TrEMBL record, chain B:
UniProt-listed Gene3D superfamilies: 3.30.70.260
Family the entry assigns: Belongs to the UPF0237 family.
Every ACT domain range: 7-82
PROSITE patterns reported for this sequence: ACT (PS51671)
One Pfam short name: ACT_6
TM stretches of this protein: none
Matches recorded under InterPro entries: ACT-like_dom_sf, ACT_dom, UPF0237/GcvR_regulator, UPF0237_ACT
Protein name as annotated: UPF0237 protein BGX16_2341
PANTHER family xref list: UPF0237 PROTEIN MJ1558
Length: 455, 93
């Protein structure tokens, strides 16, 4: 039988170390909603989401209460809307109509984010893909809980540089339009990917891939605070002890995720998809991935040794987590969003963490350059260049990479930008001032890489 | 009937009648105690009970709320009730 020490350990993780289940995300296929009339399509989308997800929030809260563990977010991901709207949408305004429908029904069922306002253009854009992408600035500034993502490349197809170039402009336009309308910077809800996973439960990049079933429940676990606390007890020990400690902790954290996922599946009557083993920080004190790196022996995240420490952390989390869940998927790794992690914010403010170091860190962990505020006067071609670099890392290394860059109009390096809530705040970081205009303006695509001769 | 287990933890300053108060409530609500362990460290009372809730008439959520209230209002301790599965998941293969 369970003993007192074990009960105390679990409850200390929950009460003192911020252990929680970060999200239950319901993936919904919307392909059966397709109609050539945009109003009918919107009605179908509303009806299906409402029918499937009306009990999601209530059930999530009940599970949280039964087990005494917070289930922080309840979310929905849907089939990429560029596919769903391809037949009905003749203009970007038509896509915005769908965006508003999604936003309204998400609020009606009470979820805090809905993802899938997306296009998958890793090799090329269809007219519908392009219309959707061009509608993003309007869509994200007219809605509150809608998240958008665009997959720009993959290891199998190479990188669609036309789309990368376009996204540079779209990201900039979204920031400027948000400023003009006086709403939350829409770029905090917009992410671009290389090798985007079909079953990611985390926002802003969640969408329900076309290879998935009709309705599926994916769960994202977290717990940077738990790992940090566990590492406090092994200060000064060697890497073997460090690895073992991270593994054991990740195992325990993931088992809770697996339990919640199975329970949600049972109560809602929809199949369980995957558990995403990510270490996802929040701006709360003690819920930071950067703090783990510091506990491992770095003065700040970004100091020499950071990439090695992160590589090890990420790998051990996977090793521990894989055995704890029957199906692991999504992004599964440590997240390093700047604004959502108190320790990363400190490091950036102290000048220890630069965009270039973050880029190196993205080579060894999920996901990418995440929640990074950059000066408002950064050129759209420069944004496209940063995206291209990040996509190239993903393409060559056969991993998911992403960019969620947030140009902040009127702000300069060192200024502080507040996003609010889970999105946190961030210091505006310096961007390399030299031009890549002639490179990103070439057009076309970067060919798929060779899959042998790895070095 | 198959057992359905929950774990009740009681944490707070030690005082007369903590166990009696909790046990009386459990008896009134058809909750069978399977195991009790407790420690007192520096005047702080720390108890865990494994109980069978398969015969309860009320909703589990109500039992949780009532126990928490009992702890706060009657004995000045923190009482938490959780289904056992979370501990099993974390500590048992």
């Amino acid at each position: 039988m369970i003993n007192l020490r074990e009960v105390e350990e679990t409850n200390a993780m929950i009460d003192k170390e911020n252990l929680d289940v970060r999200t239950i995300t319901m993936g919904l296929c919307l392909l059966d909603c397709i109609d050539s009339n945009v109003d009918k399509l919107c009605q179908n989308i509303h009806d299906k989401i409402y029918r499937c997800a009306k009990d999601l929030v209530k059930t999530g809260n009940e599970i949280a209460k039964d087990f005494g563990i917070p289930v922080v977010n309840k979310r929905i991901s849907v089939t990429p809307i560029s596919l769903v709207g391809a037949s009905a949408c003749k203009s970007s305004a038509d896509f915005v109509k769908i965006a508003k429908t999604l936003d309204a029904v998400a609020k009606k069922v009470g979820v805090n984010f809905l993802g899938g306002y997306s296009a998958l253009v890793s090799k090329g854009m269809t007219p519908a893909d392009e219309l959707l992408i061009r509608s993003i600035p309007e869509a994200l500034t007219e809605t509150d809980v809608l998240c958008s993502s665009v997959n720009l490349g993959s290891t199998k197809t190479g990188i669609d540089m036309d789309a990368v170039r376009l996204m540079g402009t779209i990201i900039k336009e979204t920031a400027e339009l948000s400023e003009k309308k006086g709403v939350l910077n829409g770029d905090s809800k917009l992410v671009v990917f290389c090798n985007a996973p079909d079953d990611n439960p985390f926002m802003a990049g969640a969408f329900h891939g076309v290879t998935e079933g009709d309705v599926v429940l994916n769960v994202g676990v977290s717990g940077p605070g738990v790992v940090k606390k566990a590492l406090e007890s092994v200060r000064g020990t060697d890497f073997e002890t460090l690895s073992e400690t991270i593994k054991k902790t990740a195992f325990k954290v993931t088992r809770v995720g697996q339990l919640v996922a199975k329970e949600a599946s049972k109560r809602l009557g929809y199949p369980f998809g995957i558990v995403d083993l990510s270490l996802a920080p929040t701006p709360a004190i003690g819920d930071s991935v950067a703090d783990i790196l510091c506990e491992m022996g770095l003065e700040y995240a970004g100091a020499p040794g950071t990439t090695a420490a992160l590589a090890m952390l990420n790998d051990q989390v996977k090793k521990g987590g894989l055995m704890a869940s029957s199906y692991v998927g999504g992004l599964s790794g440590a997240f390093i969003p700047v604004s959502e992690d108190q320790g990363m914010i400190h490091a950036a403010e102290a000048g220890a963490l630069t965009l270039e170091k973050l880029e190196a860190m993205t080579c060894v962990c999920s996901v990418g350059l995440d929640m990074i505020a950059i000066p408002g006067d950064t050129k759209d071609t420069t944004i496209a260049g940063i995206i291209a670099d990040e996509m190239a890392i993903g393409m060559i290394n056969q991993k998911t990479t992403a960019c969620r860059l947030i140009p902040c109009p009127g702000k300069k390096v060192g200024d502080k930008v507040e996003f609010g809530g889970l999105l946190g705040f961030a210091p505006v970081m310096a961007v390399n001032p030299y031009s890549c205009e002639a490179f990103v303006n070439r057009g076309g695509r970067i060919p798929a890489p060779v899959h042998s001769f790895k070095n | 009937m198959a057992q359905e287990r929950a774990i009740i933890t009681v944490v707070g300053k030690d005082t007369v009648g903590i166990i009696a108060t909790v046990c009386t409530y459990l008896a009134e609500n058809n909750i069978n105690i399977l195991d009790i362990s407790q420690t007192i460290v520096q005047g702080y009372f720390n108890m865990m009970m494994i109980v069978d809730i398969s015969a309860i008439q009320k909703a589990f959520g109500d039992i949780q709320n009532e126990l928490t209230k009992l702890g706060e209002e009657k004995i000045g301790v923190q009482i938490k009730t959780q289904k056992e599965a979370i501990f099993d998941a974390m500590h048992r293969l």
